[in-house]
Amino acid sequence: MKARNAISSAFPYVTSGDGFYADGSFIQHDNIAYTGSYGSVLLGDIAKLLTILDKSPWPIEVADFGNVWKWVTDSFEPLIYDGNIMEMVSGRAISRYNNNTRGAVWTILRLAQFAPSEQANYYKSMVKEWVISDTSTTNPYAGMQIRDIVNFKQLLGDSSIKLRGDLVTHHQFSVMDRIVHSRPGYTLGISMSSSRIANYEEMNGEHTKGWYTGDGMTYLYNSDSDQFRNAFWPTVDPYRMPGTTSDGLKRTAIKTTGKNWVGGSSMDNQFGIAGMDLAPPGSKLTGKKSWFMFDDEIVALGLASQLQMHVAMDVRLRQLSRTG
């Protein structure tokens, strides 16, 4: 009972430091967006505890446990595309050759066994959507433990569970300086840094060239489910990351920029704007970056003062689909 009660501190939302925030953000190591690594591990451990304690004399009945069901839809669902969690919330873990980006999906299906019926049915619907749409693996059971293989086979064979369909949403993870804009056939992710969130994390010899990943890097996910995996990180030019403005210099690791003007706003969780006061540590480069995300169009604007360069980019996405 003491062990069961001791976990109660993990469930309330936090307003500073490490943990889950009400806007869906998850922070670890004080200022790193870490939903895809530490956050995923925490969710997985909760599923293990539920498995052990369910129907025992010590069920988890602590205050704020209901937040766990919100974490699935608010913190994880917007960040998972085709069954893989986005790299921009996995910290230094993205540099690992065996980084498991599918683990959160396995956990969500485990949680469906214990969730209230409405949430459980929705979790199964979203997981089924992710499994069917994931083209990055020919074996959906690769790496799974036997218990998960059993759960997934039951899910795929259950015709009463319908596919969720493409997620259509705009989500501002303001606390961790991340933006997600999802439409049928694609999702855009934006990774920023500020006085609150560090540019990137380098630790234990990992992620040693992540210099620009917090400089407004953009991730466009579509039918190519494997594009940011499959040896992307060891082969991409670390000075020319997508969506960034570069002076070709190395950056200082685990540093905040000192700039507060980073974030955005949304309308009806469908459309949004984002802005970033660019001032990377270890560089004289400064500038302003903005993104405008509409129904079927994304506009990116940039002004970099030290490079005396003005960039305007209008990216039209009407032609994007899962087949092309």
CATH superfamily of the largest domain: Chondroitin AC/alginate lyase
Main beta-sheet annotation = 5 strands, antiparallel
Whole-Å distance between the termini?
Answer: 54 Å
Put simply, the count of helices is 7
- Shape descriptor: globular
CATH fold category name of the largest domain: Glycosyltransferase
**Strand arrangement across the biggest beta sheet:** 10-11-12-13-14
Please give the radius of gyration in angstroms.
20 Å
- Average pLDDT, rounded to a whole number, is 90
Name the features.
globular, Beta-galactosidase, Chain A, domain 5, five-stranded antiparallel beta sheet, Glycosyltransferase
Question: Overview of this structure, please?
Answer:
- The protein has 324 residues and is α+β, with helices and mostly antiparallel strands.
- It folds into two domains: 2-156, Chondroitin AC/alginate lyase (Glycosyltransferase); 169-316, Beta-galactosidase, Chain A, domain 5.
- It has seven helices and 14 strands.
- It has helices spanning 2-6, 35-53, 67-76, 103-111, 117-133, 146-156, 232-235, and strands at 19-20, 26-28, 32-33, 80-81, 84-85, 169-173, 178-183, 186-191, 217-221, 262-267, 271-278, 287-293, 297-304, 309-316.
- The strands form four sheets. A five-stranded antiparallel beta sheet has the order 10-11-12-13-14, with no helix packed on it.
- A hairpin with a 3-residue loop joins strand 10 and strand 11.
- Helix 4 runs antiparallel to helix 5.
- Mean pLDDT is 90; it is low at 307-324.
